[in-house]
């Protein structure tokens, strides 16, 4: 990270403006002057929006919630890179001291067919919710919290599951991938539960259903160039993709040769 500084800066932001999903959009330039360099990029957008409202113009629509790099809501492409110039941070953790005085900062939404733009910088990432709902959960009762605490889990396995669980579902992996692949997100959610004993009863159906839903929603294929893990604000490893592929192949094999009851649905 760049060290804090007290010298104010001025920049021009080149922002994508789009009134609705079914309307054409364009880039519009706005001056942002005399900024505290230690404010976040989102705080800078707040300042610009205050200026726009004072002159009766429509403020720039952008999504945000925690502003602490936890929720994944603030998904922006900043100067061509999801979440901005730094590694391992979300858009809300990008500060104005990261940019040169009098520079032009291009800000646009995450772009992918399954992530349609709702307005300006806000993309509809509900496709991730649909994937999660297709299998990213445990529905078979595995006991109370006390029982779970009695289940031995090797530390290396628990640590690996926690590494996968760090995924905040922001969509940077999709925005960074030339194929708009969601493999890093899906593999993290599959591995998070598949590594733990509580997730074993539904391990096969989970990976099959989540991958099928990902394909159904129009996400692209993975070509193993690892832009996804490079752009991930939580530095989720692409190794989880290989783990998910192994689980998917094994689950597909077992499903194909699963024992079927004798008789069938025919006549007498």
From TrEMBL:
GO terms for molecular function: 2 iron, 2 sulfur cluster binding; electron transfer activity. InterPro entries: 2Fe-2S_ferredoxin-like_sf, 2Fe-2S_ferredoxin-type, 2Fe2S_fd_BS, 4Fe4S_Fe-S-bd, Beta-grasp_dom_sf, Helical_ferredxn, SDH/FRD_Iron-Sulfur, Succ_DH/fum_Rdtase_N. Residues 158-188 form the 4Fe-4S ferredoxin-type domain. It holds the Pfam family Fer2_3. Residues 9-110 form the 2Fe-2S ferredoxin-type domain. GO terms for biological process: aerobic respiration; respiratory electron transport chain. Gene3D superfamilies: 3.10.20.30, Alpha-helical ferredoxin (1.10.1060.10). Transmembrane segments: none annotated. Its cofactor is [3Fe-4S] cluster; [2Fe-2S] cluster. Belongs to the succinate dehydrogenase/fumarate reductase iron-sulfur protein family. PANTHER family: SUCCINATE DEHYDROGENASE, SUCCINATE DEHYDROGENASE IRON-SULFUR PROTEIN. This is Succinate dehydrogenase/fumarate reductase iron-sulfur subunit. It comes from Rariglobus hedericola. The lineage of its organism: Bacteria, Pseudomonadati, Verrucomicrobiota, Opitutia, Opitutales.
């Amino acid at each position: 990270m760049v060290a804090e500084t007290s010298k104010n800066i001025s920049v021009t932001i080149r922002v994508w403006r789009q009134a609705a999903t079914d309307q054409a959009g364009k880039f519009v330039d706005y001056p942002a002057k005399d900024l505290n360099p230690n404010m976040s990029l989102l705080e800078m957008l707040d300042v610009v929006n205050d200026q726009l409202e004072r002159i009766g113009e429509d403020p720039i629509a952008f999504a945000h919630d925690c502003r602490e790099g936890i929720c994944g809501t603030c998904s922006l492409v900043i100067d061509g890179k999801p979440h901005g110039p730094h590694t391992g941070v979300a858009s809300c953790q990008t500060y104005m001291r990261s940019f040169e005085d009098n520079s032009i900062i291009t800000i646009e939404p995450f772009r992918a067919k399954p992530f349609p733009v709702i307005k300006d910088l806000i993309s509809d990432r509900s496709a991730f919710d649909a994937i999660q709902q297709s299998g990213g959960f445990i529905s078979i009762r595995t006991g109370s919290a006390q029982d779970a605490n009695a289940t031995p889990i090797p530390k290396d396995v628990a640590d690996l599951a926690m590494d996968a669980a760090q995924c905040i579902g922001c969509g940077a992996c999709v925005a960074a991938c030339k194929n708009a692949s969601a493999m890093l997100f899906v593999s993290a959610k599959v591995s998070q539960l598949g590594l733990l004993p509580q997730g074993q009863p539904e391990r096969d159906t989970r990976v099959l259903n989540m991958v099928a839903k990902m394909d159904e929603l129009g996400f692209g294929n993975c070509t193993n160039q690892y832009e996804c893990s490079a752009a991930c604000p939580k530095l989720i490893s692409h190794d989880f993709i290989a783990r998910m592929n192994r689980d998917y192949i094994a689950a597909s094999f077992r499903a194909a040769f699963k024992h079927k009851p004798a008789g069938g649905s025919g006549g007498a």
